[in-house]
Amino acid sequence: MKIMAVCGSGLGSSFMVEMNTKKVLKKLAIDAEVTHADLASATPDQADLFIMTKDLAASSGIPADKLVVLNNIIDINELEAKLVEHFAKQ
Amino acid sequence: MLAKWLTQQTVNVVESVDDWKQAIRLCASPLLENNAITPAYIEAIFQLHETIGPYYVLAPGIAMPHARPEQGVNRLGLSMLLVKKGVKFNSSENDPVYLITLLAANDSSSHVDMLTQLAALFAESKDIETIFKAQDREQVLAVINRY
Questions:
Q1: Chain A 44-63, residues with CB within 8 Å of chain B CB atoms
Q2: Is the pLDDT of residue B141 over 90?
Q3: What is the ipTM of this complex?
Q4: Measured between CA atoms, how close is A72 to chain B, in angstroms?
Q5: What is the pLDDT of residue B92?
Q6: Does the N-terminal or the C-terminal CB of chain B have fewer CB atoms within 10 Å?
């Protein structure tokens, strides 16, 4: 599985999300390749799951079933809860 | 580690600002003065914000404006502005913003340690609360110096 964290520039906030995602996946014992990118280069075929803020999600063009939307990208508990919810739907 | 970047010169505290653009300009001014960034970097952040929205508002009260290295970064840099009364960034969930941290990365990897420490600070809600309520630069730096 490939997971892509996305932000406007692809090297600030997306990188923080990538770090937190790796921590959560380790805790959940889920094996995945996690990367980060800017919004312009994040196209639906590039990953199985995309993580981004609510402020970006609307303009991302990523289908809802491949999207985890965060309100607070620092909050690792929100991230974990939303990832668990996402995987439960798969 | 953050104290290497966030210093008497790069951390500022103001009562209020007119709008988010003024907040970013004020936050960036120490990095312009020490030539870490060029004015083009600030314009790049404004342009991206106007195109895709406030992508750098991370959490309630916290913004980390940044653009790409090739958009006007001369060298790695970080600056911080506390706006005591808060400022709207048009973020649906996280307005008003009190703490603005301008990140200038000169390539895609050299800022990793800096971001790791910043993420640790931002995740510590008690310390962030202390910064939000700080009265002056010394009170902000007292927290920063622990990261």
A1: 53-56, 58-59
A2: yes
A3: 0.82
A4: 4
A5: 84
A6: N
